[in-house]
Specification:
- The chain has 516 residues and is an alpha+beta fold.
- It folds into three domains: 243 residues, BirA Bifunctional Protein, domain 2; 109 residues, Herpes Virus-1 (2-Layer Sandwich), CATH 3.30.40; 104 residues, Anticodon-binding domain (Rossmann fold).
- The strands form seven sheets. Strands 3-9-10-16-13-12-11 form a seven-stranded mixed β-sheet. A five-stranded mixed β-sheet has the order 20-19-21-22-23, with helices on both faces.
- A hairpin with a 5-residue loop joins strand 17 and strand 18.
- Helix 2 crosses helix 13, helix 5 crosses helix 8 and helix 7 runs antiparallel to helix 8.
- It is globular.
- Bound molecules: adenosine-5'-triphosphate.
- The site of adenosine-5'-triphosphate has 16 residues, from strand 10, strand 13, strand 16 and helix 13.
- Adenosine-5'-triphosphate binds next to strand 10, strand 13, strand 16 and helix 13.
């Protein structure tokens, strides 16, 4: 399906079923800001719980933090965000659309690499087992030419980015005939730098208001609390601090629904280690974080690491975990070896000593840091975009029908079970109420007695409820109910007393955590 169609369907479904609404909708919305509805907030909370527990519950040496969004403005000077948290932007004069110059170039390189990939895959199918990819890359004329082209653009691009050479970035776009996807023209403006931080004022203007920023990442709140947590928690290196919270970026190109928003939420963990051991810990956290993703059951082939060749000013290694969204492989999480850059900067700018006395080494040092940083909203998008399906089903009378179903992992589904009396009489609603009363302390349950049972199943399929429990007249005689499974639509008769155990095993986040 084309990318726009994937998003259209997803956006419409999320709105219709109470997952995500455009912000300020009655005022025609606010660009790249969204509100999470009654089911969205539950799914979001479950994602956050899975992450939080995997960090704080499973690791004795990782503790949590909830720092404020507003921080002293000098923090952003020290971190480099005031001077360097910029994106190079460029406008097309015909379509009047604005783009990130770096993204235009990266997408162009990706297109050339895709051509190479296709060429290789074609040959692989043709030659079968005897195919030697390395040799093919060295000898096929088209692959050699395209690879040389991609390498040449890439090296010019990296040099220009590292030197913040905006003229050269524009020249790369011109030299490679990169056109505006909307107007198809090469009529580009100059490239300008654009700082992504939102600024506001704190205090009234008369008594000297000071400029403060809405944090563009949660990490700095962790760094400036490093000593507080280390001392009060008597933490010994290596240890980590985890935090979930809102971050704000004035993104130039904010599209693709909740993939790139101006207000979003991050789950970040900073792991403090001995200098010199950071690359070992970097590899360790790469593994741990990949396991966290694959435990959700989407298949290992749908994930890959994308190691950075262009490193941020603070990093000595960095990788992204990319997931194969229905619209291609995209970053969901970044893992960065941030060296001692941040703590050192804060030590310098605050004038306070930020060091750790290592009893084993008998010396003080500024720890090095490995960061794992994942967007809650991007993870949310990954889950719903993989879950939403339209399936053809064959009805009992042999005719076909379609159903819309959200095949969410049961652990994360907002509603775990719906309890439905077959009819609204003969004492069946009362039994349903009793079952809900029995299970509501453990699971998010929903009572539903409106419409035919078939329509009720469809409604629950559309919000992704993994189990539907139906009470019928047989229930009065033998205390059994039918349990209907969302994914297979199979039904089974089970005792009411066994419901809790059957469902608990499949939906508890604890059983997911045990896989890690
Ligand atoms: P990108 O390259 O996509 O702009 P980034 O490399 O700047 O992202 P980081 O600063 O490493 O992202 O942030 C860590 C994570 O936060 C990302 O992997 C992503 O999941 C999430 N994230 C970053 N920016 C946004 C945004 N504007 N909207 C939603 N999530 C975001």
């Amino acid at each position: 399906m084309a990318q726009e169609d994937v998003f259209k369907k997803l956006i419409a479904h999320c709105k219709e079923y109470g997952y995500i609404f455009p912000s300020s909708e009655i005022y025609d919305g606010l660009s790249a800001v969204y509100d999470y509805g009654q089911y969205g907030v539950e799914l979001k909370n479950n994602i956050k719980k899975y992450w939080w527990d995997s960090m704080v519950l499973l690791n004795e040496n990782i503790v949590g933090l909830d720092s404020a969004i507003f921080m002293h403005p000098t923090i952003w000077k020290a971190s480099g965000h005031v001077d360097a948290f910029n994106d190079p932007l460029i406008d097309n004069k015909d379509s009047k659309k604005r783009y990130r110059a770096d993204v235009l170039i990266e997408e162009h390189i990706a297109k050339i690499e895709e051509k190479i990939h296709k060429e290789i895959e074609k040959a692989r199918t043709k030659f079968g087992d005897s195919f030697d990819e390395k040799k093919f890359r060295q000898t096929n004329a088209r692959v050699i030419t395209n690879q040389a082209k991609a390498d040449e653009i890439n090296s010019r691009y990296l040099k220009a980015m590292n030197a913040t050479d905006l003229k050269e970035l524009r020249q790369i776009i011109l030299d490679n005939d990169i056109v505006c996807p909307i107007s198809g023209s090469r009529n580009w403006t100059e490239v300008r730098q654009f700082n992504l931080m939102f600024a506001t004022e704190m205090g009234s203007t008369t008594d000297g208001a000071s400029k403060v920023y809405l944090r563009p990442e949660t990490a700095q709140g962790i760094f400036v609390n490093f000593l507080n947590v280390q001392k009060t928690g008597r933490m010994k290196i290596p240890f980590g601090i985890a935090q979930i919270g809102k971050a704000f970026r004035n993104e130039i190109v904010a599209r693709q629904f909740i993939f790139r928003m101006r207000e979003f939420e991050q789950m970040e963990m900073q792991f403090f280690v001995q200098p010199g051991s950071e690359l070992e810990w970097f590899r360790h956290w790469k593994n741990i974080r990949m396991k966290w993703h694959t435990a959700l059951g989407y298949g290992e082939e749908n994930y890959r690491f994308h190691d950075h060749t262009k490193l941020a000013h603070y990093a000595n290694a960095a990788t992204d975990i990319e997931y194969k969204f229905p619209f291609g492989f995209k970053e969901v999480e970044g893992i960065h070896s941030r060296t001692d850059f941040d703590l050192k900067q804060h030590q310098e700018f605050s004038g306070k000593k930020i060091q750790y006395f290592d009893p084993e080494k008998g010396e003080s040092y500024i720890p090095y840091v490995i960061e794992t940083s994942i967007g809650v909203d991007r993870m949310f998008l990954q889950i719903i975009s993989s879950a939403l399906r339209e399936e053809e089903i064959i009805k009992e009378n042999g005719t076909t029908d379609t159903r819309t179903v959200m095949k969410l992992p049961s652990f994360l589904a907002p509603v775990k079970l719906a309890v439905m009396p077959l009819v609204k009489k003969d004492g069946l609603p009362e039994i349903a109420e009793k079952i809900i009363h029995l299970l509501r302390f453990d699971f998010n349950c929903q009572y539903d007695d409106k419409d035919s049972i078939g329509r009720r199943y469809r409604r629950q399929d559309a919000i992704g409820t993994p189990y539907c429990i139906t009470i019928d007249h047989q229930t009065i005689d033998d205390d059994t109910v039918t349990i209907r499974y969302r994914d297979t639509m199979l039904q089974e008769r089970v005792k009411i007393s066994s419901l809790k155990d059957i469902i608990a095993e499949k939906v508890s986040i604890a059983s997911l955590l045990k896989k890690l």
